[in-house]
């Protein structure tokens, strides 16, 4: 696996290019070349096993994600939102959480879901079109995917307000993206979190592109700096450096848990794939830019570090590959055999306490559907229209 | 134990009872704390239950509803106040996109027991955005329940029931009736939250109304009685679901129906009722279902609201037209 020693600097966009290069204040513990560096404020000290665990997490997540893209191309999924390139941002932050913490994802947090022990097949139901999510958020303290961007930051804040009321020592982790940073709900979430000193960490994966719009279309300041205006700390971390993301997110969650209120983490990363499988990024961004970020690949850089330090051998890598194949196989089979819901399912769970209106429409539709069954079995074919 | 109290006081007592009986109940909204709300519905609650349970929020309606959702996910039962009808729209996305759908999105695995109280309707001489009736915009949304009391007793009991309900309930309070007094039996056993009630028996025409218009319809029935006409008045109480059985039974008796609301007639609750009752009572009806309500125009300046709002005469005019068929 080759790693470029230096990435070409982009000069075509002037000041915008400078902002997008990641400076200033980027927390980094592992260079793109896989060299370990120290930071004044943030540190991690991981065992070789933990380091290998992060590598395994990222590889399996990438394999799962790639399998989902393939399944979409094969018509098994209607849509998929790939996380390619964001594995470190998601595994690093997800692995920073404790079981009692609560996570509010967007719709792209497949890696975070992995760290919360959410069955990957649960994530695929909505993309196959058999449900809109459907897993129990309280089973793994991992809320349902939220498609309307930014909405979940308010839910996370309210949840964190409840955590504080309960006197619990848990934290809440709210994911959002650079595009969502423009949403009013995100600003309101920052306001509420600050005013009530809620134990919530806002984790922005700035992957540089909100579908076709670059971050310059969302903000004139680096996103992490917005926190200052709301009265809480913000930090920018190299989102392709799993060690730095882990260190920064751990510190931010501890900040929240210890009663110091919210924090904003901006993970500076890159969406290597399309926004979703319906998107065509060649229409709005250059191959040069993608190549530049390919040289900062989160998995390659951790592997370079593991190899340099002699922390993993070929058996380990082969084992991860075998596990990846097994995961992909399980996902493939699981998706292909995922049952379609019955037509009456659409009337279920509209209300917790029921509704006479739903009952009436359900009964009417059931009778209508049954009229076809009657026709097929030879009864009353002339009835109905 | 029956007490005489205004609608506003009944709501206040209802919130007090809910806060006392369930430690998970929270009251939240703009100015609901020390001030007691701009209509004083939360008067005294902040003092007695503290700021941990009666929460003054930032002035951000989407934030109020969005954080209420999070609190509900944590096990709380938030009762959120939106200060005025016309201020609910910043929260509309959270209500429609998240609150209404989250239970279904989770295939029933989570519940959203949230009440959103909204003072609504006109008749108080207010400036723009303070007199609107947006109830249809919520009743149209699957996943929400929508109710509106018309009197003190219902204000007390329906709010209790809305808070106890495991579904999101949009609770429309008829603000111009806040100061109307009525009898409240705080030890009664309340009926179904979503059941309509015949509040005036009659034989010639059915008037169906809810919230602030129930009083107008009762006055219309009294005036009509002087002219020898017997009007039946149905207080719908619930707009989602609607108790069509009670309306149907009334219409099968009177054979004529006039629906009255402050909200614009176009796509309003009256349209839905007209369609469903026509289906159910086609052979009983002696006249088309008629509607009396607001016009397809922005709520007018206060000096014109008496012309805009359905009053006694417009209701009786519709009664005349129904009887003339």
Automatic annotation (TrEMBL), chain A:
Its cofactor is thiamine diphosphate. Residues 1-25 are annotated as: Disordered. The lineage of its organism: Bacteria, Bacillati, Actinomycetota, Actinomycetes, Kitasatosporales. InterPro entries: Alpha-ketoacid_DH_E1_comp, DH_E1, PdhA/BkdA, THDP-binding. Pfam families: E1_dh (PF00676). Keywords: Oxidoreductase, Pyruvate, Thiamine pyrophosphate. SUPFAM superfamilies: Thiamin diphosphate-binding fold (THDP-binding). Coiled coil: none annotated. Residues 56-327 form the Dehydrogenase E1 component domain. It comes from the Bacteria. Residues 10-19 have a biased composition (Basic residues). This is Pyruvate dehydrogenase (Acetyl-transferring) E1 component subunit alpha.
Automatic annotation (TrEMBL), chain B:
Its cofactor is thiamine diphosphate. Gene3D superfamilies: 3.40.50.920, 3.40.50.970. Residues 5-180 form the Transketolase-like pyrimidine-binding domain. CDD domains: TPP_PYR_E1-PDHc-beta_like. Keywords: Oxidoreductase, Thiamine pyrophosphate. The keyword Oxidoreductase applies. This is Alpha-ketoacid dehydrogenase subunit beta.
């Amino acid at each position: 696996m080759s790693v470029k020693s230096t990435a070409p600097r982009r000069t075509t966009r002037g000041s915008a290019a400078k902002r997008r290069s990641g400076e200033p204040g980027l927390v980094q513990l592992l260079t793109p070349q896989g060299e370990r560096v120290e930071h004044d404020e943030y540190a991690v000290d991981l065992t070789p096993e933990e380091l290998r665990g992060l590598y395994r997490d990222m590889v399996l997540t990438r394999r799962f994600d790639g399998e989902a893209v393939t399944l979409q191309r094969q018509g098994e999924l209607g849509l998929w939102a790939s996380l390619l390139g964001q594995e470190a941002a998601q595994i690093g932050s997800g692995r920073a959480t404790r079981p009692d913490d609560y996570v509010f994802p967007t719709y792209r947090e497949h890696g975070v879901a992995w760290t919360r022990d959410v069955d990957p097949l649960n994530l695929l139901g909505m993309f196959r079109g058999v449900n809109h999510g459907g897993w129990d958020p309280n089973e793994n303290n991992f809320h349902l995917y939220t498609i309307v961007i930014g909405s979940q930051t308010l839910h996370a804040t309210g949840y964190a307000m409840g955590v504080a009321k309960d006197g619990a020592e848990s934290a809440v982790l709210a994911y959002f993206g650079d595009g969502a940073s423009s949403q009013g709900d995100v600003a309101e979430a920052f306001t509420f979190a600050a005013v009530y000193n809620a134990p919530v960490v806002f984790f922005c994966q700035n992957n540089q592109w909100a579908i076709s719009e670059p971050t310059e279309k969302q903000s004139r300041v680096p996103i992490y700096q917005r926190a200052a205006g709301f009265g809480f700390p913000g930090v920018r971390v190299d989102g392709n450096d799993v060690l730095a993301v882990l260190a920064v997110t751990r510190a931010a969650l501890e900040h929240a848990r210890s009663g110091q209120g919210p924090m904003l983490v901006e993970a500076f990363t890159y969406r290597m794939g399309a926004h979703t499988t319906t998107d065509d990024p060649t229409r709005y961004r250059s191959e040069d830019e993608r190549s530049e970020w390919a040289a900062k690949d989160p998995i390659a850089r951790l592997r370079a570090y593991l190899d340099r330090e002699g922390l993993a051998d070929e058996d380990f890598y082969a084992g991860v590959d075998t596990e990846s194949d097994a995961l992909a196989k399980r996902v493939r089979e699981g998706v292909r055999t995922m049952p379609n819901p019955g037509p009456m399912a659409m009337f279920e769970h509209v209300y917790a306490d029921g509704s006479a209106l739903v009952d009436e429409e359900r009964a009417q539709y059931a009778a209508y559907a049954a009229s076809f069954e009657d026709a097929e079995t030879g009864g009353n074919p002339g009835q109905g229209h | 134990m029956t007490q005489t109290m205004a609608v506003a006081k009944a709501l206040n007592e209802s919130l007090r009872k809910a806060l006392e009986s369930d430690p998970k109940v929270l009251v939240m909204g703009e100015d609901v704390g020390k001030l007691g709300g701009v209509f004083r519905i939360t008067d005294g609650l902040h003092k007695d239950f503290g700021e941990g349970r009666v929460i003054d929020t930032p002035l951000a309606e989407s934030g109020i509803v969005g954080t209420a959702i999070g609190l509900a996910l944590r096990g709380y039962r938030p009762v959120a106040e939106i200060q005025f009808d016309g201020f609910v729209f910043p929260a509309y996305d959270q209500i429609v996109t998240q609150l209404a759908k989250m239970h279904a999105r989770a295939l029933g695995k989570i519940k959203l027991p949230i009440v959103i109280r909204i003072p609504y309707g006109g008749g108080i001489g207010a400036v723009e955005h303070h007199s609107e009736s947006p109830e249809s915009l919520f009743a149209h949304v699957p996943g929400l329940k929508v109710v509106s009391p018309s009197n003190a007793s219902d204000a007390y009991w329906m709010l209790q029931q809305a808070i106890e309900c495991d579904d999101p309930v949009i609770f429309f309070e008829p603000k111009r009736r806040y100061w109307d007094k009525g009898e409240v039996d705080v030890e009664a056993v309340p009926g179904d939250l979503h059941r309509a009630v015949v509040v005036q028996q009659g034989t010639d025409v059915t008037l169906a109304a809810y919230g602030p218009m129930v009083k107008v319809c009762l006055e219309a029935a009294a005036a009509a009685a002087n002219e020898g006409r017997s009007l039946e008045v149905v207080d719908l109480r619930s707009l989602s679901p609607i108790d069509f059985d009670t309306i149907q039974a009334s219409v099968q008796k009177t054979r004529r129906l006039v629906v009255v609301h402050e909200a614009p007639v176009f796509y309003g609750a009256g349209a839905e009722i007209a369609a469903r009752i026509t289906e159910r009572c086609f052979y009983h009806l002696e006249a088309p279902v008629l509607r009396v309500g607001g016009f397809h125009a922005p709520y007018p300046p206060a000096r014109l609201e008496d012309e805009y709002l359905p009053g006694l005469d417009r209701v009786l005019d519709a009664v005349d037209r129904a009887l003339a068929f």
